[in-house]
């Protein structure tokens, strides 16, 4: 291994590893700190897994339908409403490339399925070590808001501000999100906000598919547990992952879909909206976003909310 001696080389090494800001004078061994909490989290995770196993053994197996590996329908571009459904808990999972094993995905599915409340889900995720991003992130960014909300909004990945504070949408994008919500008479206390991925990817890189895959069972369980009337995906990654849509999000925003899992008794109305960060970067999208927000308001009015 090459020994880095020049300060510039060392700095470049840090930047490549995703360290893009200095936040303290003294070094902190986060691996050692994490180790102390590890034992109790592992015990909790094991207890939840055992509970999931017991529950699964007591339930009749419901076969997934003949769709793709996640049970999702193709052919969405026809414009008809779609009804994504998922494979049942602990159904065989496909191999995923990029640092996450099938076992880790299975464990995510079981842990998420075992959670009976948003608090239990948050605790399960705290104890889950199957996502490699956890090692480089400062904090888990779970979600925030009203766990009985009628509207759930899902973004993509936490940024630096969210990573530091352990809360979603607290940076500039979050401030714009607050204004967007206010424009249709909503605030953070009335909605629930979370992300597609629960830990910040180093250097704000795009998360790998396997990192999204291992977080997805928790995101889906979060939506099941809150059971909102309307699900809003913010930007491409959330729209692709949760609504099983592909392609440019600019073509998907404003369309209505449905979201449903095998454990849900009814589908949820779902729509895609431009991500606030992309509205900051490309203000030209704001006009369309405003129209999409009005359509969400109208949907809520129709639902008597
Ligand atoms: N962007 C997101 O998608 N989520 C956050 O929490 C912050 C920025």
CATH architecture name of the domain at 96-302: 3-Layer(aba) Sandwich
The sequence of SSEs as H and E is HHHHHEEHHEHEHEEHH
CATH topology of the domain at 96-302: Uracil-DNA Glycosylase, subunit E
Distance, first to last CA: 61 Å
CATH class of the domain at 96-302: Alpha Beta
Strand percentage lies at 5-15%
Roughly what percent helix?
A: 40-55%
SSE arrangement:
Layout (H helix, E strand, L loop, with lengths): L6 H10 L13 H29 L43 H13 L3 H9 L6 H4 L6 E3 L5 E5 L4 H6 L6 H12 L7 E5 L13 H18 L3 E5 L1 H8 L12 E4 L8 E6 L2 H6 L4 H17 L3
Parallel strand pairs: 2-3, 2-4, 4-6
Antiparallel strand pairs: 1-3, 5-6
Helix pairs in contact: 2-3, 3-8
Uracil binds next to loops.
């Amino acid at each position: 291994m090459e020994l880095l001696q020049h300060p510039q080389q060392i700095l470049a090494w840090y930047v490549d590893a995703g360290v893009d800001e200095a936040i303290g004078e003294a070094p902190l061994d986060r691996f050692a700190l994490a180790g102390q909490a590890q034992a109790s989290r592992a015990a909790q995770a094991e207890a939840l897994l055992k509970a999931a196993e017991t529950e699964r053994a007591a339930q009749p197996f419901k076969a997934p339908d003949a769709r793709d590996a996640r049970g999702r329908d193709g052919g969405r571009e026809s414009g008809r409403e779609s009804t994504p459904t998922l494979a049942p808990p602990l159904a065989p999972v496909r191999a995923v490339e990029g640092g996450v094993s099938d076992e880790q995905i299975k464990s995510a599915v079981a842990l998420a399925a075992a959670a009976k409340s948003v608090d239990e889900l948050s605790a399960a995720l705290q104890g889950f070590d199957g996502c490699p991003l956890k090692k480089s992130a400062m904090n888990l960014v779970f979600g925030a808001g009203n766990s009985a909300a009628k509207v759930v909004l899902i973004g993509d990945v936490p940024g630096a501000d969210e990573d530091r504070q352990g809360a979603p949408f607290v940076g500039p994008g979050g401030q714009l999100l607050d204004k967007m919500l206010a424009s249709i008479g909503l605030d953070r206390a009335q909605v629930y906000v979370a992300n597609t991925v629960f830990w910040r990817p180093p250097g704000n890189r795009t998360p790998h598919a396997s990192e999204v895959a291992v977080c997805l069972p928790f995101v889906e369980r979060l939506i099941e547990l809150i059971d909102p009337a309307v699900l809003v995906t913010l930007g491409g990654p959330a729209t692709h992952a949760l609504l099983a849509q592909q392609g440019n999000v600019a073509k998907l925003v404003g369309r209505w879909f449905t979201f449903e899992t095998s454990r849900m008794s009814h589908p949820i109305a779902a729509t895609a909206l431009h991500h606030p960060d992309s509205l900051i970067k490309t203000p030209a999208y704001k006009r369309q976003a405003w129209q999409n927000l009005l359509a969400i308001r109208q949907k809520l009015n129709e639902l008597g909310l």
